[in-house]
C-alpha cells in the first residue's frame, strides 16, 4: 500500500515496488494533470489505485480493510513550503491528521507487518549553525510545512510507544527525505520544473524565477 501514489515521490515508489515484483495498491487524490509522473508512467493500469483523501479516515480505513496489505508506505502530504503559507489549515490537516489517520489504519489492519512514514529533513529545528542534522537533534519548524512535518514525526513516535511496542507488533519507521529532482515533477515553485515551464512558454527565465520567489526559494 502506498498513500500519495499519484504524487511525484509516491508514483516513483510505486514504480520501484512494481520492479521488485510487489502487488501495489495506492490511495491518493487524483493526478492534477496529464504531465504528472503517475499519468506518464501509465500507473493506473499497472497498480490498483483508488482516489481518496488522507483526511477522510472512514474511507481510508475501509480501503485498508479491503486490501489487507503486508507493508504500507505513507507519502501522501501537502509538500510545498509556499502552499503551507497560503493555506496553513489544509497543510496541517493533511500532514498531521493525515499521519494520524494512516497509523489508525495500520493499528486496525492486522495484516500489516511493517509501515514507513515519509516526512522531510525540514522537520528539525533550524538553528542556522551550518552543521548537518542528526536524528537525535530537536524537532521544530518556523514555517507551517516544516512544523507540520515535525508534528508528523512526533505522531509517529507516539504511536510506536503507545500501540506498536509489543512483541509481534507492526514494525514502524520514519524516513526524513530531502528534496529530490526527477522525471514527472511538475509542482509549482520548484526550481527545475519552473525552468522547464519557462522554456516551454518562451518566457525570460530569470524573470520567472524572481516572480515566483517566496519563502523557501532561492531567488
For the record, the CATH class of the largest domain is Alpha Beta
* Class from secondary-structure proportions: alpha/beta
Tell me which CATH architecture of the largest domain applies here: 3-Layer(aba) Sandwich
Strand count, sense and closure of the main sheet?
A: 6 strands, parallel
The percent range for helix content is: 40-55%
CATH topology of the largest domain: Rossmann fold
Topology:
Elements: E1 2-3, H1 8-19, E2 25-28, H2 37-40, E3 48-51, H3 57-67, E4 71-74, H4 81-86, H5 88-107, E5 114-118, H6 144-163, E6 171-175, H7 191-200, H8 205-211
Parallel strand pairs: 1-2, 1-4, 2-3, 4-5, 5-6
Helix pairs in contact: 3-5, 5-6
Descriptive key words:
Rossmann fold; single chain; globular; 8 helices; 219 residues; six-stranded parallel beta sheet; alpha/beta
What's the short story on this structure?
The chain is α/β, with parallel strands linked by helices. The chain is built from eight helices and six strands; from the N terminus they run E-H-E-H-E-H-E-H-H-E-H-E-H-H. It has two domains: 2-182, Rossmann fold; 188-219, no CATH class.
Amino acid at each position: 500500500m502506498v498513500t500519495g501514489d499519484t504524487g511525484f515521490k509516491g508514483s516513483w515508489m510505486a514504480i520501484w515496488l512494481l520492479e521488485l515484483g510487489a502487488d501495489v495498491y495506492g490511495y491518493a487524490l487524483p493526478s492534477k494533470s496529464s504531465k504528472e509522473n503517475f499519468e506518464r508512467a501509465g500507473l493506473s493500469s499497472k497498480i490498483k489505485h483508488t482516489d481518496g483523501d488522507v483526511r477522510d479516515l472512514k474511507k481510508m480505513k475501509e480501503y485498508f480493510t479491503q486490501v489487507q496489505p503486508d507493508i504500507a508506505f505513507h507519502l501522501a502530504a501537502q509538500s510545498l513550503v509556499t502552499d503551507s503559507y497560503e493555506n496553513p489549515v489544509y497543510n496541517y490537516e493533511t500532514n498531521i491528521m493525515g499521519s494520524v489517520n494512516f497509523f489508525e489504519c495500520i493499528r486496525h489492519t492486522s495484516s500489516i507487518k511493517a509501515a514507513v512514514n515519509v516526512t522531510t529533513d525540514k522537520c528539525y529545528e533550524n538553528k542556522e549553525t551550518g552543521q548537518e542534522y542528526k536524528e537525535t537533534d530537536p524537532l521544530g519548524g518556523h514555517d507551517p510545512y516544516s512544523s507540520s512535518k515535525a508534528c508528523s514525526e512526533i505522531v509517529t513516535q507516539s504511536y510506536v510507544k503507545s500501540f506498536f511496542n509489543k512483541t509481534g507488533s507492526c514494525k514502524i519507521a520514519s524516513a526524513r527525505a530531502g528534496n529530490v529532482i526527477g522525471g514527472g515533477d511538475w509542482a509549482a515553485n520548484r526550481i527545475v520544473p519552473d525552468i522547464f515551464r519557462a522554456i516551454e512558454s518562451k518566457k525570460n527565465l530569470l524573470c520567472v524565477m524572481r516572480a515566483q520567489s517566496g519563502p523557501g526559494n532561492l531567488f
